[in-house]
Design brief:
Layout (H helix, E strand, L loop, with lengths): L22 E4 L1 H4 L4 H16 L3 E4 L8 H16 L13 H11 L3 H15 L6 H4 L3 E8 L5 E7 L5 H14 L15
Parallel strand pairs: 1-2
Antiparallel strand pairs: 3-4
Amino acid sequence: PTAVLDPPEDYVSLCGASISGLKVGLDLAMVETLDPVVAKAITDAAAALESLGARIVPFSMPDQTGMTEAWMALCGVETLIAHKDTWPARKDQYGGNLAGLLEGAQAVTGAELGAAMQYRLVYRGQWAAHVAMTGLPARTVPAGCDGAGAPIGVQLIGPHLGEASLLTAGHAFQTVTDWHARRPDLSALPL
């Protein structure tokens, strides 16, 4: 239910296309709750996109009560289907986290799955934060580094079947920033 069988667009040809008029939603209240370095990376990224002609649109994230439970039901059942040839026959070869997800999925009722699918549809239209829950396409671009030199990424979320606009926006962003060309000094990071 999350795959499209149509041939993909020629995404490479979109490199260099304008993002003038592209709407970019930004939840400023959420940004204010973040570490100041991360918040600055996000607002700088928004400013870079705006300089390229994108329109920054303030919005508020919807209430996400129940999202994790709905996501676990959907993700679990979809993963269970994908593993139908090996689960549970080869259960001993699965790691604990994946085995736990699959075991939980076996207990999901039809009513719970239906409710989770409805939840997905509601959130898809409300710019949900939990992108895996919505089934919407997303792209992360490098947008800064924290005080220790670890990279900070900004996630762009597109509309249903909006991969082309995400790739175009990400490419445009990288033409006016150099974060994608930097390499962190991993020796400085605590491991």
